[in-house]
Design brief:
With 261 residues, the chain is of the alpha/beta class. The chain is built from eleven helices and seven strands. Strand 4, helix 9 and strand 5 form a beta-alpha-beta unit. Helix 2 packs across helix 4 and helix 5 packs parallel to helix 6. The longest helix has 21 residues. The chain is globular, with a radius of gyration of 18 Å. The model has no long low-confidence stretch (mean pLDDT 92). The chain binds S-adenosylmethionine.
């Protein structure tokens, strides 16, 4: 019920001419206040419930809940810089076959799709294990899906629904923190990457550190050296970390290449 009311409220505000950017920004600011509040007051109901719900929905937004809608709005504003950076650094060519895993609201897929050309063989695929994010991204990418530029799948990185050696480039932003078997997930990503293909990961390390300190991200899973070690253990080569300024913040780009003999 509250989910429907919230959607209706957003719809009414949009009809009244309140721009989506302003609405998204307001939700983002509310969320940025809500997270520390829930952390510090989490011994008290209802903050304890809210804290658990934020943590759960960040890793896998539930279907049709108010929290999943809030998380979607939050991701659209908070992670746009990381998604844009990943697409830019992938240097996508018009003929590339590209995959984003954990695409959330679909901003990165949309940007990648604008760079490829179907007539040259280019295609963008996406996989996410949240039904709610698959629906949100499908809504955003209706035209691209209709034009055959994009396909979105509901599935897990642990068991990707693609043939081996399918993609020239893979990217993901703010996703590996949720993989309990990080080496297994990286091996699966390596399997679907073509020989010589690139996998690029972007993140905002300060935002990640804040999320860990607010206890909404697992410290071990969100540890960059652990992720780098998992990439190498899975068989990626030339794993390189580069700092980049984007959206007024330092972001980290992690490059990892598939060498297959
Ligand atoms: C924090 S959100 C990030 C979304 C988007 N990349 C961004 O930066 O805004 C994490 C997303 O990854 C998805 N995800 C996490 N682990 C996954 C897995 N093992 N397989 C598929 N999707 C996963 C979640 O459902 C969620 O949509």
């Amino acid at each position: 019920m509250s989910f429907r009311c919230f959607r209706l409220l957003i719809h009414i505000l949009r009809e009244m001419g309140v721009a989506s950017d302003i609405l998204n920004w307001c939700v983002f600011r509310i969320f940025m206040l809500l997270v520390p509040l829930c952390m510090y007051a989490r011994k008290i109901w209802p903050f304890s419930v809210l804290h658990k719900s934020i943590s759960k929905n960040l890793g896998r937004p539930d279907n049709g809940t108010l929290m999943s809608l809030l998380i979607k709005q939050f991701l659209e504003v908070g992670n746009e810089a990381a998604e844009t950076l990943a697409v830019d650094k992938c240097e996508i060519q018009s003929s590339d076959k590209v995959l984003e895993v954990g695409f959330g609201p679909g901003l990165g897929i949309q940007k990648a799709a604008s760079l490829i050309d179907k007539s040259c063989g280019g295609h963008v695929s996406g996989v996410d294990y949240s039904e709610s994010m698959v629906s949100a991204a499908t809504e955003r990418l209706t035209q691209e899906i209709h034009d055959g530029l994009v396909d979105l799948q509901h599935g897990s990185v642990a068991d990707l629904p693609y043939d081996s050696n399918s993609f020239d480039k893979i990217f993901h932003c703010n996703v590996f923190y949720f993989w309990d078997d990080c080496v297994g997930c990286c091996s699966e990503l390596l399997r679907v990457l073509k020989p010589g293909g690139l996998m690029l990961t972007t993140l905002n390390p300060n935002a990640v550190a804040n999320a860990v300190s607010f206890d909404i991200l697992n410290k071990q899973n969100a540890n960059i050296p652990n992720y780098l070690a998992a990439l190498k253990q899975a068989g990626f080569v030339n794993v390189v970390v580069v700092d980049q300024h984007r959206g007024g913040a330092v972001h980290v780009c992690i490059y990892a290449w598939a060498r297959k003999d």
